[in-house]
């Protein structure tokens, strides 16, 4: 076996050894689209960025760490970015405050990855109850944050222990699609409708097939097909 093939086999073995939720699946562009945020924003969260200050240039380290040795994001990374989207894009909490809260949860609450928690499992303790007073919010601000987190966390299906299982991306103005799902156990985490990749449905639509014929072929409802096509950026 030559060096290239050996390296490829080692990489495949490493990927398969991971929990499916920690396997590298998504490019930054793909993940940003599934989350409904900009690629630049997600890149900052994943790779960090430098920024100017009166004392000179400083570095803002990443808050989301992809699987080791991979430029791709995992399903767990997608769930973490979803929480950051709620905190940053909707509630405008500064990255500095988020970093302090995450650090507090890791050091004082013993949580390895706070952004993977649901509200009941402790995310609310970190960002809403805030026992150390690191996040200054009025009562109305706390209620607003809780509602925002609930809406965004509703995108994630969890098991009985609170572990993330599936992700429902936003589509056509909906905060959460009920039809489209990203499941790390199905189609390598690609967006699907009842197990059928939305990308495949959209390609056949582009080739001239009607939503009605696609629905019949795949055993889907017409609304399933239309939402898959819209999600992939086509007009249904």
Structure description:
The structure is a single chain. By secondary structure, the chain is mainly alpha-helical. The chain has 2 domains: 11-153, no CATH class; 165-236, Orthogonal Bundle (Arc Repressor Mutant, subunit A). The protein is built from 10 helices and 7 strands. It has helices at 3-17, 28-35, 39-47, 75-90, 95-108, 119-129, 139-153, 198-206, 211-218, 222-231, and strands at 49-53, 56-60, 156-158, 164-167, 180-182, 191-193, 196-197. The strands form 3 sheets. It has a 3-stranded antiparallel β-sheet. The protein has a two-stranded antiparallel sheet with strand order 1-2. It is globular and about 60 Å long.
Task: Please give a handful of descriptors for the protein shown.
10 helices; 2 domains; 236 residues; mainly alpha; three-stranded antiparallel sheet
Write a short abstract of this structure.
This protein has 236 residues and is mainly α. It has ten helices and seven strands.
Give the overall shape, derived from the CA principal axes.
globular
> In terms of per-residue confidence, which ranges show pLDDT below 50 for 5 or more consecutive residues?
none
Query: What composes the largest sheet?
Result: 3 strands, antiparallel
Backbone structural class? mainly alpha
Kindly report how far apart the N and C termini lie. Answer: 48 Å
Mean pLDDT: 89
Helix content: 40-55%
Number of domains: 2
